[in-house]
Amino acid sequence: MSIHLLTDNQLVELYLGGNEKGLEILLHRHKAKLFSSIIVIVKDKALAEDIFQDTFFKAIQTLKKGQYSEEGKFLPWIYRIARNLIIDHYRRIKKMPPAPVYFNEEGEEIHPLDKVANGDDAFNTKDDYLKRKTNIRNLVQLLPADQREVVIMRMYYDMSFKEIADVTKVSINTSLGRMRYALLNLKKMIEEKNVEVAL
Question: Could you tell me the domains of the chain?
Answer without folding.
Answer: 3-92 (1.10.1740.10), 102-193 (1.10.10.10)
